[in-house]
Amino acid sequence: xxxGQEAQRTWNxxxxxxxxxxxxxxxxxxAWRYLILRRVTQFSVLLLFFATAHWxxxxxxxxxxxGNLSASSLLGVIPLADxxxxxxILFSRHLLATEVxxxxxxxxxxxxxxxxxxxxSWVCPVNPVTDLAGWLRxxxxxxNALHLNRNLRYYMVAxxxxxxxxxxxxxxxxxxxxxxxxxxxxxxxxxxxxxxxxIFLFDLMVVRHGWCGHLCPLxxxxxxxxxxxQVRIRFDETTCTRCGECIRVCPExxxxxxxxxxxxxxxxxxxxxxxxxxxxxxxxxxLSFDLRPLIxxxxxxxxxxxxxxx
Length: 310
Fold this sequence. Notes:
Blueprint: H1 3-8, E1 10-11, E2 14-15, H2 25-31, H3 33-54, E3 58-59, E4 62-63, E5 65-67, E6 71-74, E7 78-81, H4 83-91, H5 98-114, H6 118-122, H7 127-140, H8 152-167, H9 171-175, H10 177-187, H11 192-205, H12 210-215, H13 217-225, E8 231-235, H14 245-249, H15 258-264, H16 278-281, E9 287-291, H17 292-309
Antiparallel strand pairs: 1-2, 3-4, 5-6, 6-7, 8-9
């Protein structure tokens, strides 16, 4: 579509504009702000684990953070545990220390508040790998080699729990590429890079966003948790022109149901990773991060205003 054709498109009387990356460095950095913040967060988490393990970083005489993404201790006082890993262990009929259960509860509540799949886009070490594969797919315009239903990941959750019950061990933790890559980076042991290379090739050559968007049971678990998330993508229906730019960049495009978002004033799906890709790319600034209570309050005031006009 050329610029003349672009200018002719309208939605509800508004001209449809497409996104164009700014020419200036400051403009580019602002457009990439959430990507930069996500990478800083992801590598900072890895740095904290690495520095504690190899450089003995301490605070008040206590290790800064010890352990791994499945179970760790912050400052030797605050337990943290992956709630999905804990659920698998419980299904395997093993008892867990109260400290581990408390750690799982802390993590579960934290992600439930800020958005379950925030882990996927802001913490998970595999995310930069799959993002690179996605970027290369776009760069070379590669088509999917097969079709996978995105709901397959929820069947993977059920399968993992059944296998944990039958085998008597935390099934996904034994093969998790997330845990493998984390151990490989922090401790330099195991075959983590081989598994991650497989995911990279799968995402690049077979299915776009194949691992994170279709198969990963941990992401599916956090999508269920994310239904209660208080940090949401706010949607201003009055300014949106349905240009489709947000859907084009979203790794989970099905969450951008704009008709539903117009009714609720926000993206409702727990599958949203809160990655922020859609926010800076919107030409009309129709999308932004906000808290669910504030969005609900705004919707209520708007409804009351409309009722008074009637």
